[in-house]
Specification:
alpha+beta; Nucleotidyltransferase, domain 5; N-terminal domain of TfIIb; 2 domains; four-stranded antiparallel beta sheet; about 25% strand; elongated
């Protein structure tokens, strides 16, 4: 399975406001729409992060490169990407007439954190800190974004470092959250067929029988992966409700 990790960085919109307490800005007061500054992406397990930006590649090439990567991916991992990164990229694809990339599984780690855990903050950096993983790159705040927009070379280089580290951290976090991810694609489907049972989350054959999984109509053998900690079940039922009631 070709799994892509991706993170985008965007420029804020510019608008005219009457005072600092303004909460709503009508469209007529927007002077310039926001846009994608850059993105970083990596194929799971490759150990190499690719980076594309407006200043190094130009807007057209950057967006087309993102489309090609998403089109090639079987699954895409991101943090809050279902609500932001992917729709933002889709907007660019629409405007340029590229059409939608080939559909892929969307693995949103923010969604897993929100549903599975009660933590002080759902931010990516807080989760990295809780798990004693290397944190995101510290930066100077909004000034970094505005200087990138203004063409300051040093800030653009700093943004590249920041963006690349986000993707590296994304892979670290994914590895730790893997057994908690619901509806994870069955990676075994992309592997050569063998008689050995494989973990649906990581493809490992290092499984241990862990009792039975009961649904409303049937029971299945349940297995625990000793490598990633995920649970999976047998494909065929051991017993069905109608058999038990006979």
């Amino acid at each position: 399975m070709k799994t892509l990790l991706i993170d985008i960085e965007t420029a804020p919109a510019k608008a005219y406001i009457w005072d600092l307490r303004t909460r709503y800005v009508p469209l007529s007061q927007v002077a310039e729409d926001g846009y994608i500054l850059c993105f970083a992406a990596s194929w799971m397990g490759s150990g190499m992060v690719e980076f594309a930006s407006r200043w190094d590649h130009g807007e057209k090439q950057m967006i087309e490169w993102a489309w090609e990567l998403l089109d090639e991916a079987d699954a895409v991992i991101h943090y809050n990407g279902k609500r932001y990164d992917i729709p933002r990229l889709n907007s660019e694809f629409l405007v340029r007439g590229l059409g939608p990339p080939t559909p892929s599984y969307q693995i949103d780690l923010y969604e897993t954190v929100s549903r599975k855990f009660k933590v002080l903050s759902k931010s990516m950096n807080h989760m990295l800190r809780l798990l004693s993983l290397e944190e995101k790159v510290k930066h100077k705040g909004m000034e970094l974004w505005t200087e990138c927009m203004d063409g300051v070379a040093a800030s653009q280089k700093e943004m590249e470092t920041y963006n690349i580290r986000d993707v590296e951290a994304l892979e670290d976090l994914y590895t730790h959250l893997l057994p908690w991810i619901d509806n994870h694609p069955n990676v075994a489907l992309w592997m050569p067929a063998t008689e050995d049972r494989k973990c649906t989350h990581c493809g490992s054959e290092n499984l241990r029988f862990k009792g039975y999984k009961y649904t409303r109509v049937a029971s299945y053998k349940q297995y625990l992966c000793k490598d990633c900690g995920s649970y999976s079940r047998s494909r065929f039922a051991e017993a069905r409700r109608e058999d038990v009631l006979r």
